[in-house]
């Protein structure tokens, strides 16, 4: 059992996540192989990505709901901040925090709703990196391709020592340390995908009696890793080697990976609800910086990491974009006022059960969306409304001297009050 686990990640927490992700990948690969006769790691990554983002859908909904409601919450949160702007005492800070919590509770969102999915995505990405870097350790169908060749190399005098030298020369990471085990030899053989055909030729030169087996193994693993480009290699390595050998079509395919990663990430950003016009300048500046940096970071990561990671990134962005579009449509059809009323009743009942219900505190959260929106409308008049107001004002003053008019009566009252003040 120890030999089986040597090539798998043993990192705390990430190792366990890698084994779970590897189990899902193995299941999908075997399903494609047995049902459709297709053995391709790229297709398995696509199916795997769809499965992962389907499982993350509840978190995606929470994140999208938070972003969508932020535009509605911001005016109320800003009013609270203005209210306590110059009050730094402990009681005022506690009151401000309590009122802020009330607003979040009223809309049924959590302050962590916007970042929880990102925090969960990070260990998944790190763990998936380990799986893609060493697929044979997790996908049995891929490991079987190398088993016979690995055993033959182990049985050849000097074979283990040569494989250790090959690993050092290729600066390979995430490889086992015991070269008397076939799993460690398989680690090295799989990592040859990053170094091109030259190292496979070195194997033939070192083990001429295994030429046919080496060529068969090379063709099989290339077929499994082929998705236009070799997904076990990095786009950067593919671009460099393709440019030097004149394989410009391969270079174009490698360039597409970071470009599509940046483009799909940019589209995701555009689908996210934007901050309201009333948001403070620092928040707007931060959001603009993030909107620019995220696509650029995506392009850089997908250029330097194995193309399989880029494939996961691109497909994940497409799936997430579809989910965001559907969630936006669903939220737009909801009655936010009804949601607020329901949340307020729910929070009221919960507070009563806990014995900390306060009518005064609950009144803080009673401002609804219509009130906020109507306040905005009062501060913004259309050109037609301005013209009507100006006309009414003109008519008022035209009739000011006409006996019996409303304006003349108002003037009489004003004069009477002024006379009494003097007396």
Q: How are the elements arranged and paired?
A:
Elements: H1 2-5, H2 14-36, H3 41-55, H4 57-83, H5 90-107, H6 116-133, H7 140-155, H8 159-169, H9 182-191, H10 197-206, H11 211-225, H12 235-245, H13 248-271, H14 281-304, H15 307-332, H16 336-354, H17 359-364, H18 369-379, H19 383-398, H20 406-422
Helix pairs in contact: 2-3, 2-6, 3-15, 4-5, 4-15, 7-9, 7-11, 10-11, 12-13, 13-14, 13-15, 14-15
Q: Can you walk me through this structure?
A:
- With about 425 residues, this protein is mostly helical.
- About 75% of the residues lie in helices and about 0% in strands.
- The longest helix is centred in the N-terminal third of the chain and has 27 residues, at about 55-85.
- The protein starts with a helix and ends with a helix.
| Uncertain parts | 1-6, 367-379
Which class of secondary structure composition applies to the elements? mainly alpha
Distance between the termini: 107 Å
Sheet-strand content, in percent, reads under 5%
Principal-axis shape equals: elongated
Provide a concise account of the structure shown:
This protein has helices spanning 2-5, 14-36, 41-55, 57-83, 90-107, 116-133, 140-155, 159-169, 182-191, 197-206, 211-225, 235-245, 248-271, 281-304, 307-332, 336-354, 359-364, 369-379, 383-398, 406-422. With 423 residues, it is mainly α.
Key features of this structure:
423 residues; elongated; mainly alpha; 20 helices
